[in-house]
Design brief:
Elements (H helix, E strand, L loop, with lengths): L1 E6 L2 E6 H4 L9 E9 L7 E3 L1 H9 L3 H8 L9 E5 L7 E8 L5 E2 L4 E2 H18 L5 E5 L4 H11 L15 E5 L3 H25 L7 H11 L6 E5 L1 H6 L3 H6 L8 E8 L8 E5 L1 E5 L19 H16 L4 E11 L10 E4 L5 E4 L6 H12 L6 E6 L3 H7 L4 E5 L2 H14 L3 E3 L4 H8 L6 E2 L8 H10 L7 E6 L21 H9 L3
Parallel strand pairs: 3-6, 3-9, 9-10, 13-15, 13-18, 14-15, 17-21, 18-22, 19-20
Antiparallel strand pairs: 1-2, 3-4, 5-6, 7-8, 11-12, 12-15, 16-17, 19-22
Length: 509
């Protein structure tokens, strides 16, 4: 008897000896192994260290079966075999391409790390497709990247399904103690991103500002993080009327979350991250079109990313001091909502004409940026699904970054190249500042003059509220929020760039 499996577009013929007497539904334990190929067609293969050891243990059966497939294992493709080992009923062989590809100057990405993430993903998905519940993964030379690909790709958002799929457990097929530590680190960062994905995909009625703040308290209850949740009265006392103007159209009260993680030197100022937390954005009186409005449940993607990042930072016990600020609101239309043309005043005393109530993210971030100055920060980073213009400019390929510090940007770019979350610097010129500040009757307009450059004028607006003489980065993640992604290890809302934020904090001197 023979069995056939289509894997990565190929049909494999397996004899009854190879397959044994099991059927697919009983295959519960599997192994992912990496294979290098020096040629684009997958020929001239070389086994990874783990694959080489497995081949020796199997008496050369692994290589025999690869030869049965034409001896071709292309990068990003997989084959699944059975009956090669008594412990692992199924083995997925995945292509890594060439060794030591290095950094691609044009693509701005670490090809070796990304190849491992994608190979781990392809292998795990191939085994998941045949109902394997316990998957061991070859480190493929980078256990951290292998963990990221494995943990991200085997998770999915299914919180509100009556019958949930049983997701597989993934673990390292270890070659040493050092690899175990790297796998753990990669898993923690990937789980932080999965937390951000979960928050971003949760429907707006089930993640209001109040529920979000309560969820944050639960997330950090067993970690070294102090959680404070402030109400509307506190915001009024702080004169955060730009922030409060956005919430006027909703019956849901606003919240302002302040998270404090101190694991650095006692006298060291914190790094401050500000996450936009609009739990649902209908546009207010400047109502959005109905098509795809449901995706605005993820308009708190910035808040989700900083929560996921801080969870990972605290779990890894990174020796830094970090402050996270999250203004939380809903932006809805009603008789009490802010009207186009209304003028409000921010915490720093600057007056703002709200010409477009759908440009609300910058209004809540303005007061949060003002408040960040209270902590004498080493730098301030805000992150937000801020402008549709960023998606027009960059598609879903990268996060747009605006900054007054090229040194910080270079660190962020290098980190993003290694995590697979690419960033791209955008202009922060006086040309754009003039478009949002040159008005006779008030200090700023929340949309500004002129056509085009919407992401740039939004950043110029935020610049007006950054504490003086403080290095600042603004990350516009509207381009990468999801749903969907060109990376195979991401589905649904992406949670990007959570892992990049973790590594960026860790990289600070």
């Amino acid at each position: 008897m023979s069995y056939f499996l289509k894997s990565a577009g190929r049909v494999l013929r397996l004899t009854s000896t190879q397959f044994g007497t099991r059927n697919c539904s009983s295959l519960q334990k599997g192994l992912v192994l990496g294979v290098y190929s020096e040629e684009a067609d997958g020929n001239n293969i070389q086994l990874s260290e783990s694959a080489h050891k497995f081949n020796e243990k199997s008496g050369g059966k692994l290589l025999e079966h690869i030869k049965l497939c034409g001896n071709q294992v292309k990068e990003g493709k997989s084959f699944v075999f059975w009956g090669l080992d008594s412990t692992y009923q199924s083995v997925a062989v995945v292509g890594l391409g060439k060794r030591n590809k290095g950094f691609d100057q044009i693509e701005r990405i670490n090809q070796d790390k990304e190849s491992v993430r994608r190979a781990a993903t392809v292998g795990c998905k191939a085994l998941q497709a045949v109902d394997v519940k316990d998957i061991s993964v070859d480190s493929m030379g980078d256990a951290e990247a292998a963990a990221e690909g494995s943990v991200l790709s085997t998770w999915k958002f299914q919180e509100y399904k009556t019958k949930k799929d049983d997701l597989p457990k993934v673990r390292l097929h270890s070659n040493g103690e050092n690899e175990n530590g790297l796998w753990k680190k990669g898993s923690i960062k990937a789980n932080g991103q999965n937390l951000a994905r979960k928050l971003a995909d949760t429907p707006g009625n089930l993640l209001t500002p109040t529920i979000f703040s309560e969820s944050v308290q639960e997330i950090f209850k067993d970690l070294n993080v102090d959680v404070k949740v402030y109400d509307q009265a506190w915001a009024e006392e702080k004169k955060m009327f730009s922030f409060l103007s956005v919430t006027r159209g909703s019956v849901e009260p606003p919240k302002f979350v302040e998270l404090t993680y101190n694991n650095g030197k006692k006298d060291q100022s914190p790094y401050v991250m500000v996450g936009k937390g609009v739990t649902f954005d209908a546009g207010g009186i400047s109502l959005k079109p109905s098509a795809s409005m449901d995706e605005m449940r993820a308009d708190m993607g910035g808040a989700a990313a900083v929560v996921g990042a801080l969870q990972a930072i605290a779990s890894l016990k990174i020796e830094k001091n970090v402050k996270v600020l999250i203004p939380l609101v809903e932006n809805l239309p009603s008789g009490s909502a802010t009207k186009p043309g209304d003028v409000v005043t921010a915490m720093n005393g600057k007056s703002i004409c709200v010409d477009n109530t759908d440009a609300e993210g910058r209004l809540i971030l303005a007061d949060a940026l003002c408040y960040s100055g209270s902590f004498n920060p080493k730098w301030v980073l805000d992150i937000a699904t801020l402008t549709g213009a960023m998606r027009v400019a960059l598609g879903n390929a990268a996060t747009g970054v605006f900054t007054n510090s090229n040194d910080l940007y270079r660190v962020l770019e290098e980190v993003g190249a290694n995590t697979g979350d690419r960033v791209w610097q955008m202009p922060l010129w006086k040309h754009y500042s003039k478009q949002v500040t040159d008005y006779p009757a008030f200090d700023l307009n929340n949309v500004g003059k002129g056509k085009g450059g919407g992401s740039c004028t939004a950043a110029a607006f935020l610049k007006e509220f950054v504490p003086e003489k403080v290095d600042w980065l603004h990350l516009d993640i509207a381009s990468v929020m999801g749903p969907g992604d060109d990376a195979p290890y991401i589905s649904g809302m992406t949670g990007r760039p959570t892992r990049t934020l973790v590594e960026f904090i860790a990289a600070q001197e």
